[in-house]
Amino acid sequence: MRLTIIKLVSIFFLFGCTTLFGQNQEMSKIPFSTPIMGVKTNLLYDLTSTINLGVEFKVSPRYTLETSVNYNPWTFGGDKKLKHLLVQPELRYWLCEPFNGHFFGLHGIYGIYNIGGIDLPLVGKQKLEDTRYQGDMFGAGLSYGYQWYLSPRWNLEATLGVGYVHLNYKAYQCKTCGQELYRKHKNYLGPTKVGLSLIYIIK
């Protein structure tokens, strides 16, 4: 039984340096030296009209430091808004080497927001038809992700994180102005990061 477990662990770390979908052949085309920096955009955030930019630096043979900034200043039809500024720094540990394969991360969270006219799961299940929430949030979480090699200058990354967020907010009577109704705070446990990012590699 013990020997079987050791074999399974060995197989997992072996696949940590390659992909299960034929990336072995592609990896032979990658130069020996690993990238030192990547600039990325989260395609999922792009779908919500959120301006976002991430930068990731190699800091050691197994570690990188990433910081992403997400900004949404827009007001949509019907005074719907998901205005926010969110910063998420993350320290990543790579099972094989930076910008290649599996990684685990420890990330921080800080943001400010002004949201109205839409569902806001972090505050409540009700639809915010006539209420606006404005405040800030901070927290931390753990993440797992994977990067695929596309070409000498391009990678694709998928990542998912869970953690804790503390939210402070004020509720207002209408979506654009209105009298302050109350002030509250909320502690949230759950998904804190999700991404499908296109990365430009700098060597």
UniProtKB/TrEMBL annotation:
Source organism, top-level taxon: Bacteria
A Pfam entry, by short name: DUF3575
InterPro entries recorded: Autotransporte_beta_dom_sf, DUF3575
Name the UniProt record assigns to this protein: DUF3575 domain-containing protein
Annotated source species: Bacteroides reticulotermitis
Source organism phylogeny: Bacteria, Pseudomonadati, Bacteroidota, Bacteroidia, Bacteroidales
